[in-house]
Amino acid sequence: MIVCHCQNITSQDIDAAINWMRAADGTALITPGKVYRALGKSADCGGCMPLFLSTMRKNDNMEVPMTLRGLRAGITQETQNERRQESN
Ligand code: FES
Q: 4: which of 27, 48, 83, 84 fits an S-S bond (Cβ 3.0–4.6 Å)?
């Protein structure tokens, strides 16, 4: 199925790019921009973005790598520590 009509990108192209990027780097965060770049193309009108994103989300390799999970909780904890007043 054609997802991006401007660049003639199919759902198979998107899946292949995601699978290739995941195989090359297991910790990579895969974004639509990276998929476009992997395919040697760039977005034009952006009208396909909702369908492009939903196609990406259906790929099993789109999960956030285990090493990157929980970073938000770590950042939140770090921020809380920075706001604490030290009593000396
Ligand atoms: S339809 Fe994808 S950039 Fe225009």
A: 48
